Fold:
Amino acid sequence: MVAYRLMHPLDNCAWHALRGPQRRFAEGDGVAVRFDPEVSVFAALPDVPTPAAWEALRELVRPGQLAVLFRDAVVAPPDWRELFRLPTLQMVAPRSVSVRDDRIAALTTADVDEMCGLADRARPGPFSRRTIELGGYLGIREGGALVAMAGERLRIEGHAEVSAVSTDEAYRGRGLAGALVRAVVATISARDEIPFLHVVEENVAAIRLYEQLGFSTRRAVVAVGLLAPE
Structure:
């Protein structure tokens, strides 16, 4: 069995979200859980996954189906087939105060069609029709159309994740993403929580933006898609 060290909750944030502040979205038992698939793609195992936990995950996602794990490292048993692996940086930011920006407005379920369309074009990562339930989302409109958005996804005790940072290609380079990230960070900070986010390692432009906004890299994590054994 692969040896895993004990972790800080941020090292295995999907597990600690589903066992903590976001447990209402959880499916599964105590050794393998996942988000309701209509809300998020992520599944999770304990900090130290046992063979029983891997078997519980297989039963949860069903044999032959996909499980997406997101943590510090993933070393699956040999009968699980890896379909993809995305090396990712986890970044954290200091708390900040809100700065008024009249371009920014709260998004609601009435905006979900536009949000999904923007996510399809900008491809910020997994985004479903019920992802909005995970946290407050903010957007910027131009000519009545939603052209940029950002919001919250994973929450663990004392921390909240900035996610779905998206700008329509025609509106990039105008500071919209930066304004939205600052606003989401301020919202998280107002709850006395620490903002964090994830960005794929190869997305150098996004990393540079987040560094300019005060984020620093905490550690590398990985998103891995695994096919459950039959």
